[in-house]
Design a protein that fits this description.
Chain A is α/β, with parallel strands linked by helices. Chain A has helices at 21-26, 44-53, 97-107, and strands spanning 2-6, 34-37, 57-59, 73-78, 81-86, 111-114, 121-125, 128-132, 150-157, 160-169, 172-181. Chain B starts with 5 loop residues before the first helix and ends with a helix. Classes of the chains: A alpha/beta (187), B mainly alpha (795).
Chain lengths: 187, 795
Amino acid sequence: MVLVLALGDLHIPHRAPDLPTKFKSMLVPGKIQHIVSPGNLCIKEVHDYLKSLCADVHVAKGEYDEDSRYPETKVLTIGSFKLGICHGHQVIPWGDLDSLAMLQRQLDVDILITGHTHQFKAYKHEGGVIINPGSGTGAYSSITYNVNPSFVLMDIDGLRVVVYVYELIGGEVKVDKIDFKKAQPVG
Amino acid sequence: MQNSGPDDISSTEEQEKWLADALALVQHHAFYMHRALDSCNLRDALKYSAQMLGELRTSKLSPQKYYELYMKTFDELRMLEVFFKEETKRGCTTAHLYELVQHAGNILPRLYLLCTVGSVYIKSKDAPAKEVLKDLVEMCRGIQNPIRGLFLRSYLSQISKDKLPDAASEFEGEGGTVVDAVEFVLQNFTEMNKLWVRMQHQGPAREKEKREKERSELRDLVGKNLHLLSQLEGVDLDLYRDMVLPRVLEQVVNCKDELAQYYLMDCIIQVFPDEYHLQTLDTLLGACPQLQPTVDVKTILSQLMERLSNYAASTPQVLADFLQVEAFSKLSEAVVKVIEVQPDMPLVGAVSLHVALLTFTLRVHVDRLDYVDQVLGACVKKLEGVGKVKDNKATKQIIALLTAPLEKYNNIVTVLSLTNYPKVMEHLDYGTNKVMAVVIIQNIMKNGTFIMEADKVEALCELLKEIIQDSDGSPALDELDEEDFMEEQNLVARLVQMLTNDDNSEMFKILQTVRKYFLKGGPKRLGYTLPSLVFSALKLVRLLQQQDESSGEDGVTFPQKVFQFLLQTVEALSVVPAPELALRLYLQCAEAANNCDLEPIAYEFFTQAFVLYEEEIADSKAQVTAIHLIIGTLQRMHVFGVENRDTLTHKATGYSAKLLKKPDQCRAVYACSHLFWVVDGRVQDGERVLLCLKRALRIANAAQQMASVTKGSGGTLTLFVEILNKYLYYFEHGNQHITNSVIQGLIELIVTEMQSDNTTQDPMVDSFFASTLRYIRFQKQKGDGVAERYASIEL
């Protein structure tokens, strides 16, 4: 079992001062194997914090990220899954699942992690799964009103991935889970 | 002043030798004394013990060495005491013994023997304890040599301490009362102190330091008396207040000796219970100004305040007593007096006194903000005219003064009500002031304190002004550590989130106040601080939108006012300059205006964004991102009428086609296709969508050809596959102009190109195309009439 944390659109320090305390106390170093972030952290301090949780951190560039070295898209393999990360401001219309599906086909990945809308989404289509972990801090978004802080934890086990979404609603952390199974690769 | 040299080493050697000799003699005489004791020979016992005690008459030994000799003799005297006790059982009365020992030739041995018998005498109760004690304490006056006298009286004290007529002791009643016991101890103490002080004046002036060191070694002998007084059961508050303290203080003040005064005041404070100190505060504090000017009174006062602070903290029930005795006003007056009386006191001393008083106040009167402010005010007065404090130690104390209320209340709003707080902070030098400002912000963030009133926000900004703006005394910014500066400014950016109020008018006032201060920050700071302000304002706009506040004064609605504010704020970034950031913020504002149905304002923001794009953003990579942001935002607009929409769309597509690299052009242009499709904002011009995609296709072709010319082989086909996907998107969404044949045509084109020798093989493109085809196949299987639409597409 491999745990992958997907967390992004934090917009620290300009839209939010920090991750919610309840999230911070859940994110303990050493428990997570990989972190994938669609971007908009936005400052080095936040990247350093993520690195303190887990050494393997992958960030795609958001339009407010301070570090210009983050790539526009990133592809990596974890277990039997290919993951792609892209912030999503490059894909127009913003948040449009069909357009995102096109990007997914282009990157040739099973799971596409994307952000920008600050709204959690887990969408399965014939090409794979699109996951938007929402905004970890509940930051202001021109696209989504009343953003609840959220992040996603993926448990990758063989051909199966269980997606846990954590949302802070009314001061309490609510968890939901979605199962995805990858088709057996044709030999 | 002589430092260590051959003379000192030899004097230590000499001391060792003399001590060894004396101990040997004591041993020698003790041997014979024991023989006498064993054979019950009283006369010989007295004779040899007197000879033994004669060794204590020496003047050669240092206090430390004398002590060793004394201890040896002390042990021997214990045996003698037992013998005396036995003697009284054998018929010799204690009174007779008491008289017999006085025949010893020399006075010192005589007095030691007398004390020893005295101990037996008291124990036997043949005479009242108080009378024996009185006699002994007065007889000891016979020894006026400081060291010998101190040890003699120490001996008296030691052997008598369990025989005092204390309350509920066996010696009370006939033997006296606790008052007699106290009187005895006080007398002994007074005489011992006099001897101790006399040591200061013995010997040449150049050996002053040596003498003071020796005196230090003996101080506990004097202090023990005070300890003894505190142990007496019968010494209650009344007796302490009426007899003990006044008499002790009288001696302390009158002896006019710096060493003694400091030590004894400290002793009093440590040895007697805090409850007593609280009730005798006037007396105790009254002695302080009467002490020698060189005595470190501030330390004494600080110790007292610290003890009382701890007392208050550990025993909350006594807080009422603190109020009743008016401890605060007495202590603060004492502080003032002490500082007045010692004009040469260094700054660090004066400030640390105030720190001690503040700690006390925060423990005892935590809800009396006026007291806290008073203490700060007293310190401000002391600091008047000093300007920026340069001394490190004093600076540390000032920081302690500022940190204490912050940590006690954990609420900056409370601290801001202390009018003297900022005045104290002003005395910190530039660097330290910034450090303190950071501490304050961290305190706010850690405690999640919201500052909800505009005037409090203003006060806070004033307090933090050294990090918010440049001032006269600040060094040039390039001298500062870049990283530290960034961290600091990011902290300020975070702080903005804590300045908020649910009342919209108050919130707007807060924003205006904060901006007033931020604008003084200069080009280096604005890029960090203004974005926070912009998003705070956007949050306000959203609230207004959701609450539908449309009425306004003089024709300008509240939301419009906020948009004016936003426009001016983003404009201010031009001095940095930060065109990319400003462009993003303008677009954010445009979207907000769109949501409020304010077309002219939304248009204005777009105009500003485009101006920045045209004039300030030259980097090609930055342009690509910027144009996508513009397209993405524009695509979401529903507020624009046909004319405005057309103008902006035309601009967007124009700039898309003019990007430097062909692939970027292609992508931006097909992104623009969505500007003609929209949906909830209507439009849905299928024909112009197709035209746009065709234009993208032409660019893709050109790119393909350019690549084959310059690189010798064809470029990649990825752009074609992307456009194919776009065709499929619109086909899915019901654009009638995207027909099966259009799609079919592009598929065949791609297939042909892929098989051509000219084309570079690219597995990414292959798989992209393959998954696109797979998608089409998938659609062909779907129900709901989808399959029929896809049926005509052949793969």
